[in-house]
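Section 3.1: Structural characterization of target chains.
Under the original work plan, the team committed to producing a structural model for every single-chain target entering the pipeline before any wet-lab resources were allocated. The record below documents one such target. The sequence was received from the expression subgroup and is listed exactly as submitted; it comprises 100 residues.
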Amino acid sequence: MNEFLVEVTTDIPDGVDPAEVDRRRAAEAVRAAELTAAGHLVRLWRPVGQTRSIALWRAADEAELRDKVLDTLPMRPWMTSVVTALQPHPNDPGKGGVTG
């Protein structure tokens, strides 16, 4: 599985019924849990004071990430995303790459 950093901004259109927003947010939490269990969603952050999120995702490739993972999110119609493919760094302390 490849790793991807995904920055998402959600912009709910004016006039959307608040009950619909609540319904989608609840469904989004359920779907995020499913994607975590499937090994796709690894970490999720929200920068302090911002409405965007940053997540670490895993997928076979960017097409799978977009088509079979991100596009299944209930809030997706209101999201814009920036996907950055990642590769291991030789000095990554999380992978034992730093030598001393």
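DSSP finds two helices and four strands in the chain.
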